[in-house]
Description:
The chain has 224 residues and is α/β, with parallel strands linked by helices.
Amino acid sequence: MKKSDFIVIIPARKNSKRLKEKNTMILSGKPLISYSIEYALLYFLKENIWINTNDEKVERIAKSYFIQVYKRKDSLATDKSSTVEVIEDQIMDMESKKINFTNIIILQPTNPFRNNLNLTKILKLYLSKKLHSLMTVSTANLKLGTINNNLYEPLNYSFHQRSQDMDELYFENGQLYICNKKIIKDFKTIISSDVYPHICEGIESKIDIDYQEDFDYAELILKR
């Protein structure tokens, strides 16, 4: 496996709408984004790891780890900017500078718990199966429904159905995405139609910090 074929991108926009400056909030003694940076450094050299940001605080943290910083354009730093647009812009810039790579690993800074995620094994699987994209998922054993005209309608179960008799459901947990850069350039997505789901175990894999209660819960887990 040639690790030079991969780059890691950690996208971190300034001024999150739901939880202000969450990427630099101190979680159990260090900034939230540090967890993703340190995870990437377990597997890749500093020159293969990029922070994509418009946040000066995040940039200073990245430089303290001696990793690469791509300064996000203001036009791509709005609430409406998608991750795909942000990554595609960086791809085009890197290609213009003759920086060679084939695949992109995306780590969201809001997911601090990747202790059980063996990236070496995942990359070997990704390459051996010749995948176009891979994403991590967690189980979602919930009875879900909608409310229409004040009436509740079950979606994935029948009333009185036992939980153990329900079909297994999964959700996209945001811990890890891998894709070939051609998928982004040609189809404007990081998740191809044939995306491979890597199933994560443990309650920690389900934590994505978007609200204060998510942050408080993560801190509680780290203090156990």
